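can u do me a favor
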């Protein structure tokens, strides 16, 4: 580690809360599907800010929009209407499923889920919820009640009140039917479970959730925080199923990298929330709104949903062609892809980063998750797949190069 690396990394480690585990690398810039660390080493980024950089890092339209807006106005509360906010809302409602034309603006996916919870309670007058095993809904105390994984909830004990939450096995229609009652306010589910192992829902499960919620007077809320904005090959994953929910939680890719969140809903759901029943200081700020306008327009203009559909199919085809006994299954939707291994994935994720210059994510202990920007090229996909194949086979290219160099030096000395 150089002195420069030590300076920045040590400062972050010294003053950070240490809640988040740190990689031993300092990233300094990005463009498209590539990021660079401070030594100048490049990495193909299949993390994309946990699925934020769908349109690529530093998309020129978003960069320009941020610069222009920063010179005009940075903050304005939602009680005071703003031109850029109105422009963003028009763009957003223009791409959401028909009927979801009311929006609560916030700053993150967790905030969007908190809003969804409160709107569901006021819309139905009920307090019980149905959520999914292996689902992930956020880490604030309210959203954490919907998150299945015990490791996220247990440190906070009874402060996480999930006594009114019924968890069902993702995809199990019989459990879903038993869980939804006349007391259910909403069913909350991800069309594709991300943290839970990149598991797409079956059409039958989504359709039955829609039918049952309508029958029982409950809401269907789809968590599109990671699946939204072209990630799965549609603008929203709900479109794959032909289902219109009562609400969707949105965030991540919506503003091209700027923090943003939203709960979009029907007018009936929105109108049942009392005035002042929810709010936030930074939600709908002009800077995020400007970035969001640019990002959504770029998605539409550049056909990014179609790109994700075509590149995702190609990516999964290449991954499935890998002949490795370590692979159990390749699954996904669009460019949201998981490779389930028969052993722990962490060593392979580490090797991809350090030996191959490819950044990936874990999703459950066995799954390697690939969430590249939609702008990734086929050539870059080929590079990622070849790197993954090498680490699965145990080949260490850096060690190989060092061995080759040592052998060449030895041969050179012998000929002297």
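np, heres the sequence
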């Amino acid at each position: 580690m150089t002195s420069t690396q030590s300076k920045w990394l040590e400062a972050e480690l010294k003053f950070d809360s240490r809640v988040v585990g740190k990689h031993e690398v300092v990233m300094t810039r990005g463009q498209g599907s590539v990021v660079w660390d401070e030594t100048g080493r490049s990495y193909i980024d299949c993390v994309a800010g946990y699925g934020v950089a769908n349109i690529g890092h530093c998309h020129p339209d978003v960069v320009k929009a941020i610069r222009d807006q920063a010179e005009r106005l940075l903050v304005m509360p939602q009680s005071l209407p703003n031109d850029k906010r109105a422009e963003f809302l028009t763009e957003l409602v223009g791409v959401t499923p028909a009927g979801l034309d009311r929006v609560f603006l916030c700053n993150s996916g967790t905030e969007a889920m908190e809003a969804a919870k409160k709107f569901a309670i006021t819309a139905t007058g009920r307090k019980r919820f149905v959520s999914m095993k292996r689902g992930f809904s956020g880490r604030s105390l309210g959203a954490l009640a919907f998150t299945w994984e015990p490791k996220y909830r247990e440190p906070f004990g009874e402060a996480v009140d999930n006594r009114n939450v019924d968890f069902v096995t993702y995809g199990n229609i019989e459990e879903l039917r038993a869980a939804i009652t006349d007391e259910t306010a909403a069913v909350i589910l991800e069309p594709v479970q991300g943290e839970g192992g990149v598991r797409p829902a079956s059409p039958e499960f989504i359709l039955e959730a829609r039918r049952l919620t309508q029958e029982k007077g409950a809401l269907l809320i789809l968590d599109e925080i990671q699946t939204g904005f072209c990630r799965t090959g549609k603008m929203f994953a709900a479109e794959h199923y032909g289902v219109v929910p009562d609400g969707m939680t949105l965030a991540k890719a919506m503003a091209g990298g700027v923090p943003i969140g939203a709960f979009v809903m029907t007018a009936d759901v929105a109108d049942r929330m009392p005035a002042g029943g929810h709010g936030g200081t930074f939600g709908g700020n002009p800077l995020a709104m400007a970035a969001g306008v640019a990002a959504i327009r770029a998605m539409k203009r550049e056909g990014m949903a179609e790109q994700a559909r075509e590149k995702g199919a190609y990516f999964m085809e290449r991954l499935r062609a890998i002949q490795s006994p370590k692979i159990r299954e390749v699954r996904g939707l669009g460019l949201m892809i998981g490779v389930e291994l028969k052993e722990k994935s962490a060593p392979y994720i580490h090797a991809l980063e350090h030996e191959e210059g490819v950044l990936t994510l874990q999703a459950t202990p066995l799954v390697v998750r690939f969430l590249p920007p939609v702008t990734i090229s086929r050539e870059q996909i080929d590079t990622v797949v070849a790197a993954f194949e090498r680490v699965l086979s145990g080949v260490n290219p850096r060690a190989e190069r060092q061995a080759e160099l040592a052998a060449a030096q030895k041969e050179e000395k012998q000929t002297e």
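DSSP finds 16 helices and 17 strands in the chain. hope that helps!!
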